[in-house]
């Protein structure tokens, strides 16, 4: 992991604060979403199908990523600069569908737009400081590395199992709420 001199670290502004707090904000939004949700067997099945695609994309990305050690250019990074966030957005859409409420979709969309925009800005600033021209070249030309293969060990080292567990927990809570409301 490249070391950054303390003098070159940026001050924490609103973008960095939001990026740092996105998980805690996610749990807070999750409680609100669960409270507002009116899931049914049909909405949960449809939402699950969407969310699994998002988690699959995240898992694929995590299996290529060497966080903070390089500019990753293989796997889904060949197509998008932030595949973990794309996957998270698809998962969010799936959970919104599972909830069965438009109000939940609005909350999820607002949460993702605000927190992921902040995370991307913060992450790109770090990548530019840490890798300079290498990151700028990737963004500009989309240079790819087709030689690197997906690694389950790398995905596990990146703790993608936590996202899988979070998705399962959210879907189980939706199923519980559906059964509690007699819709399951």
Structure overview:
There is one protein chain. By secondary structure, this protein is an all-alpha fold. The protein has one domain (14-180). 70% of the residues lie in helices and 0% in strands. The protein has helices at residues 14-36, 41-62, 83-99, 102-131, 133-141, 152-157, 160-180. The model is unreliable at 3-7 (pLDDT under 50).
What's the short version?
By secondary structure, the protein is mainly α. It has helices at 14-36, 41-62, 83-99, 102-131, 133-141, 152-157, 160-180.
Shape: globular
Terminal Cα span: 48 Å
Structural class by secondary-structure content: mainly alpha
- Share of β-strand residues: under 5%
The description of the largest β-sheet is: none
* Continuous helix count: 7
Topology of helices and strands:
Layout: H1 14-36, H2 41-62, H3 83-99, H4 102-131, H5 133-141, H6 152-157, H7 160-180
Helix pairs in contact: 1-4, 2-3, 2-7, 3-4, 3-7
Keywords:
184 residues, mainly alpha, 7 helices, 70% helix, 0% strand, disordered N terminus
């Amino acid at each position: 992991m490249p070391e950054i001199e303390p003098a070159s670290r940026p001050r924490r502004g609103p973008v960095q604060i939001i990026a740092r707090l996105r998980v805690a904000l996610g749990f807070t939004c999750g409680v609100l979403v669960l409270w507002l949700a009116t899931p049914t067997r049909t909405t949960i099945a449809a939402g699950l199908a969407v969310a699994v695609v998002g988690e699959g994309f995240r898992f694929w990305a995590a299996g290529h990523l060497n966080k903070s050690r390089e500019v990753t250019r293989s796997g889904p990074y060949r197509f998008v600069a932030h595949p973990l966030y794309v996957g998270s957005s698809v998962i969010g859409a799936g959970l919104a569908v599972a909830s069965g409420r438009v109000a939940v979709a609005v909350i999820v969309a607002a949460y993702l737009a605000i927190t992921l925009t902040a995370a991307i800005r913060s992450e790109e600033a770090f990548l530019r400081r840490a890798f300079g021209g290498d990151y700028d070249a990737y963004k500009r030309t989309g240079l790819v590395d087709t030689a690197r293969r997906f690694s389950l060990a790398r995905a596990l080292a990146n703790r993608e199992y936590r996202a899988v567990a979070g998705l399962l927990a959210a879907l189980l809570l939706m199923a519980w709420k559906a059964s509690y409301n007699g819709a399951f």
